[in-house]
Design a protein that fits this description.
Layout lengths: L1 H20 L6 E10 L3 E2 L2 E2 L6 E10 L2 E10 L3 E3 L2 E3 L4 E15 L2 E12 L5 E10 L6 E7 L8 E14 L2 E15 L3 E19 L4 E12 L2 H5 L6 E11 L1
Antiparallel strand pairs: 1-4, 1-16, 2-3, 4-5, 5-8, 6-7, 8-9, 9-10, 10-11, 11-12, 12-13, 13-14, 14-15, 15-16
């Protein structure tokens, strides 16, 4: 999977070079990005032993289809869910294929599948459906179904809102909020079905030019239900970091 990730990024770099020099209409678009964060937080669960991580990836889009690669690299030795990791280990690599469709101007649907390659844990797959109402705050409802490893229901739901305020040319302020519900999903916990976590987020995006951008973000997360806290191991968490991206 690591070799696939390197190949994917190399292909993305070649594609971006071809796009930048081509005179014809651009058919393929995408981005390459890398960031540093104080932890890896996924659905309210700390997956890096409260230590800094590096996260990087790339996206390639053609019309409504997008192929995405993402990896999480640990920068310190640690213990994650009872399994020991060393600095420099890639604890997770995700490959996602997504299709976006807008039947009417008011609605946008995203449907896809994510393959989770997990170091020291069983790999798994999730399909998902996301529905966004293109209006104030862009409310988005998402349903995820683990059809691979989940022995129980394997569902996870989230509802999010967000808005970007343009502070000046090239500089945007992002504000967002999210609530989630776990129904015995493998990636969270198959031990309970109840409200999972809520998140409050903010961030700044600065476009240096048409191709390069940097962003800083902060997210606060906490458990909603006692089951999420006691059985899912979710507690109050603060996630912050910075990311640089090349868009083409």
């Amino acid at each position: 999977m690591k070799k696939f990730g390197i190949l994917f990024v190399a292909c993305a770099l070649c594609m971006s070079a071809m796009v930048s020099t081509a005179k014809a209409e651009i058919v393929v678009s995408g981005d390459i990005y890398a960031g540093m964060y104080n932890k890896y937080l996924f659905r309210g669960v700390d997956l890096s032993d409260n230590k800094w991580v590096s996260q990087f990836g790339a996206d390639l889009s053609y019309k409504g289809l997008t192929l995405s690669y993402w990896s999480n690299l640990l920068t310190h030795d640690g213990n994650i869910l009872g399994s020991a990791f060393e600095s420099g280990d890639i604890s997770e690599t995700d490959i996602t294929l997504n299709y976006e469709y807008s039947p009417i101007e008011l609605l946008t649907f995203n449907v896809g599948n994510t393959f989770y390659s997990l170091e020291n844990f069983e790999d798994t797959n999730e399909i998902y459906l996301k529905t966004t109402v293109n209006t104030l705050l862009s409310p988005t409802f998402a349903i995820f179904y683990d059809w691979d490893q989940s022995k129980e229901t394997g569902l996870f739901y989230s509802l999010s809102v967000g808005h970007t305020f343009e502070l000046m040319k090239g500089l945007g302020l992002n504000l967002g909020a999210l609530v989630s519900y776990n129904q015995r999903n493998y990636s969270v916990s198959e031990a309970f079905s109840n409200w999972n976590n809520y998140e409050l987020s903010t961030g700044l995006d600065y476009a240096i030019n048409d191709n390069f951008s940097v962003s800083a973000s902060y997210t606060y997360s906490n458990a909603i239900s006692e089951k999420a806290r006691d059985l899912g191991g979710i507690s109050d968490e603060s996630l912050y970091g910075i990311k640089a991206a090349f868009n083409f």
